[in-house]
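Notebook, p. 212. Picked up where the previous page left off. The plan for this session was modest: take the two constructs that came back from the sequencing core last week, fold each one, and keep the raw output in the notebook itself so nobody has to go hunting through shared drives later. Recording the first one now, exactly as returned: residue sequence, then the structure token string.
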Amino acid sequence: MGRNIFVTMLMCCIGWTCSAEILTLKIPLARSQHDISYDYHTRLLAAAIERGSEGEHTASFVAEVDMHEGRATRELIKGENLDVFWMGTDYSKEQQLRAVPIPTTRGLIGFRKFVIRKQDIGKFARINTIEQLRELTACQGTGWPDTLILRNAQIKVATTPALENIYKMLAAGRCDFFPRGYHDHQKELQLRAEQYPTLLSYRGIMLHYPFAVYFFTSLENAELASWIEKGLDMMIDSGEFQLHMQTHELTRDVFPLGKEADVRAISVKNVILSEGTDYSNERYWFQPKDFGLK
């Protein structure tokens, strides 16, 4: 992937006239050549802006700079080099930025499967409780909210800023498991099969904590945040949101849900979720029962 990307998504002819004004927005570069989440979110964002602005705007995205979540948060606060981004939410971000409080994948990211080394299948087959899991070390990204959630649950965590380096750490034995979102775990390994033939997605355990990716803007960019929120709600009502999830490469393979009734479920608290977050709201959030979990 080139270091300078100009991504244009003109969707003005879907339900609206083609007289919409092009809204140019700065976003970070994709995390790697395998980052299909990037395409999922830019498509969802463009559609939401078009719907929410009632066809007055279509989104054009300019991406020029690599940014991990920590830097992206700082740049959004300044509102100069970044206009909007999607990140795992937490109380701190929601205080410093303007959050669009609609989960972009209905909270799938809080249902976690483990990427492990093939040689460790027997080790994980013996794990049934959080206490046993604490004997191992998780791999996570520096600055990711997940790192704080896992550490608060007294799970040891090794970190690195870059996603690709996490896979390198795991393959090298510097950590024991990489908890990935339910929609991420298999697809990411398929894309990296030649690089990491010693890794696999372990089916036997599901780790769960209420967690979601939101779109964020600066506090000053209330209009953009309003368009996105209104547009996502409109897409939920029309069925477009569900269709996007069921057809996009990132999430389509998780459907139909309800395949996890026989797995060992381990739940931990998300202590960095904003107070009052209604993750029991089935309009926006998947529930454990949707996966067959008890």
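Okay, moving on. Second construct, recorded in the same format:
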Amino acid sequence: MGAYTYPIVTENVKKLPFYLVGVGCDWEQEEIDRPLGYPTHQWIHCVKGTGSVTIGEDSHIVEAGQGILLFPGVRHRYHATDDRWIVHWLTFDGVHVDNVLKSIGLEESGIYWSSNSDLLESKIRLALSLVEANRSFAGIDCSALVYGFLLDLYKYTHRTADETLHLKQSRLDPVLAYIAEHYREPISIEDLAACIDITPQYLCQLFRELLHTRPFEYVNQFRLNKGKEILLTSPETRISEVARLAGYSSESYFGSIFRKHEGLSPSRFRKLHGIKDTPG
């Protein structure tokens, strides 16, 4: 039948941003019908076999590697369509769960595809072991695990069979690597788009969709961070040379960008960190 357990949820645990309510692994799922839903959030991960799931009026067939996200109070029912439908499950709650789910785009109950099913399964097994260990700080450890699990859902799941966020973002890896290697040189939007053989327009779309910024905003932020590193690690380097090493065309432009983002000049930034500026 598999293993399952429920941690002790004290009033202090309920004050945490996230807390674990229950966890089960290798569960041979029986038929469930909940007209009034379940009192907490649930993630049911299909490990083996298939099941039929109805959420509200919508019915779905769930296969291995897919998961079911259920919000509290949402009418649902499910049953096996194979001889054995094996699932892992996690129930959780917390004062910040709804806000986090909304912020990462998981706003409603439904069926989700996963591009890293093994990772999600291992996290649920870890939750089971944390509760079974019965340590004094288990509530805090489980709270951290639930938060990490929600971020994993954000990275590795999607409502359709399309690319998950993780797979989409991996498409930008060659572009980000190019920026890291060539940030000291002039970079054009055509250079960046050529890294992954797409149009500049589509590259801008990917940056907006995945990183919520524009390509050259990212380049400027990367160069700015490099400038900050040099300011702190090489106190003998003059500001004009820092600007050049960070990829800026002039000291004045570097100073302007620095003040815009940091609210102070490069020299003041050094002094703020206890470093005496080099004249000239």
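Notes on construct two before I forget. The radius of gyration is 25 Å.
Flagging for discussion at group meeting.
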